[in-house]
Amino acid sequence: MPTNASREPAGSSAPALRRAVQILDKIAELPSPPTFTDIVSLLGLPKSSAHGLCATLVELGLLIRSDAGTYRLGAHTMRWANGFLRQTDIVGEFQRLLQERRELAQFTLTLTILDGQQVVYLACSNTNSALGFTFRIGMRLPAAFTATGKAMLSRLSDQEVMGRLGSHWPQPLTAHSVSTPDALAEELRITRQRGFSIDDGQIREGMLCIGAAVSDFSDAVCAGIAVSMLAVEATDQRVNETGRILVDIAHALSQRLGSSQP
Fold first, then answer.
1. What pLDDT is attached to residue 12?
2. What is the pLDDT of residues 150-160, one digit of tens each?
3. 104 CB contacts (<8 Å, ≥6 apart)?
């Protein structure tokens, strides 16, 4: 159901800014560039204000309007993304740690943070393995399906998880994507017991990912790291060994961020 963005919550300020951010967020999460009509319909925006906002966003380089009338994010947004990465020390610590810890160098490794119902990829170390999937900085995927998302969610209570995911369950990416809150709750229970999470083909058929949570100076979960491999490589022994190494690397990264957890 469309979000009726024309009805601002009581006491909210800068409604035009809020609507502009809603437009940028919606375009960022859609699989293909939307038309103006799509934007208005999906967000429940008044056409008059949406038209002015889109025009301004195009003028500022935050959106690009194609000849076909569709909108996609403009290059200006990358300035913010790059600035965020420069100012986020966890990225530098992750990269330095991977230079020191080479046990998993043959695999693709990723670093994400949790943003609402999604994970956002901050750093990727892609290998030449034919995973059939390329992780990219800035990519967003449903937290419920990803190894890093499951690892971070497992550090929350079931009530907090359901409160975060809300009533809008993400569209499955594969036939293996976890399909219900109850099924996810069971996965998270197993993850807490095992110490690491597993995404077995939930974001890409034939790919298995193992995830571990990272803590910050307050000992709260702040990120997740994952290793990805072909499902045919993922014997029980390899998964368990890789999971233990990944948890140790996540612990080392947490310590660098000031965590006091043993």
1. 57
2. 999 999 998 99
3. 227, 242, 245, 246, 249
Phi, psi (rounded to 5 degrees) for 125: -120, 85
Q: How far apart are the C-alpha atoms of 138 and 133, rounded to whole Å?
A: 15
Q: Are 207 and 228 in contact (CB under 8 A)?
A: yes
pLDDT digits (tens, 9 = 90+) for 45-89: 999 999 999 999 999 999 999 999 999 999 888 888 777 666 668
For residue 100, give both structure tokens.
């020191």
Q: Which CATH class name applies to 15-77? A: mainly alpha
Distance of CA 66 to the CA centre of its chain: 27
pLDDT at position 6: 43
Cross-strand pairs, 65: 71
Strands 108-115, 118-125: parallel, antiparallel or unpaired by DSSP?
Answer: antiparallel
The architecture of the domain spanning 88-256 is 2-Layer Sandwich (3.30)
Which DSSP string do the residues of 182-250 spell out, in sequence order? HHHHHHHHHHHHHSSEEEESSSSTTEEEEEEEEE-TTSSEEEEEEEEEEGGG--HHHHHHHHHHHHHHH
**33: enclosing H helix or E strand:** none
Question: Where are the chain's structural domains?
Answer: 15-77, 88-256
pLDDT digits over 190-226, tens only?
A: 999 999 999 999 999 999 999 999 998 888 999 999 9
How far apart are the C-alpha atoms of 98 and 92, rounded to whole Å? Answer: 10
